[in-house]
Amino acid sequence: MTLGLFDTFPNAAPHREALAPGAVVLRGFVNESEENDLRAIESVVAEAPFRRMVTPGGFRMSVAMTNCGQAGWVTDLTGYRYSPTDPETDRPWPRIPALLADLAVRAAAVAGFPGYAPDSCLINCYEPGTRLSLHQDRNERDFSAPIVSVSLGLPATFLFGGATRSDRPRRVPLDHGDVVVWGGPSRLAFHGVLPLDDGHHRLLGRRRVNLTFRRAL
Ligand SMILES: O=C(O)CCC(=O)C(=O)O
Ligand SMILES: [Fe+2]
C-alpha cells in the first residue's frame, strides 16, 4: 500500500504557522461557510458603504473602509479614533453579523486567546495597487485582547514586524480564508500590506477584503 502525504496525516489540524510570540497564521480557517460570510459582509456594506477616509496629515487613503460593531475606526483631519456612529450618516454602525463574530471568536480561541469579545470590526477593501503602510493598531482602549484579521478575495503580502517601526518586517503571503491573530507580546507589532497584485478571485473579483476584529472600547 502506498501512502500519500495526506494519508500520512489524516487528522492534521488546519495548518497554523507561528509568526512571533502571540502571533499566528491560521491557514484556510474560513471554509464551508464562506458564501454566507460574504453575504453578511454585503449586508453591512449596504448600510455603511465603503469610503476612502482622509488621514490627519490630509492624505486620502487608497484602501476603502467601513465598519460594523459598537464602535468603528475612523480617520479625518482631526485624528484617528473609534466612533459609535458612522460619520457619513450619524447613525450607529451596523451590528457585527453573528456569523462573523463567531468566526473571530473561534480563531482567537484556536490561537490561544479564549473568551475573545470583539466590539468592532473594520472592513478594508483593496483594489490592485492599493497598500496599507506599516502601522500599529493602537487606538483601542485595552491591548489585552488580540487583533483577529480575516483575509478574503485576492491574495496579498502581509508585512509583520516588531515593536518598533525599524524592525525589519517578515513578508507573509495571505490567501483567501487565511486568518492572522496577534495579541499578547505581539499586540502592538507594526504591520502593513504591500500593494495588491492584479488578479481575479472567483468570489470577490478584482478585490481583497480584509476584516479586522478588535476590542476597541
Ligand atoms: O488588510 C490587512 O491584512 C491588515 C489590515 C490592518 O492592518 C488594519 O486595517 O489595521
Ligand atoms: Fe492594522
UniProtKB/TrEMBL annotation:
The keyword Hydrolase does not apply. GO terms for molecular function: broad specificity oxidative DNA demethylase activity. Residues 117-217 form the Fe2OG dioxygenase domain. It holds the Pfam family 2OG-FeII_Oxy_2. Its cofactor is Fe(2+). Its EC number is 1.14.11.33. Signal peptide: none annotated. Gene3D superfamilies: Alpha-ketoglutarate-dependent dioxygenase AlkB-like. It is an enzyme of class 1 (oxidoreductase). The keyword Iron applies. It comes from the Bacteria. NCBIfam families: PRK15401.1 (NF011930). This is DNA oxidative demethylase AlkB. It comes from Pendulispora albinea.
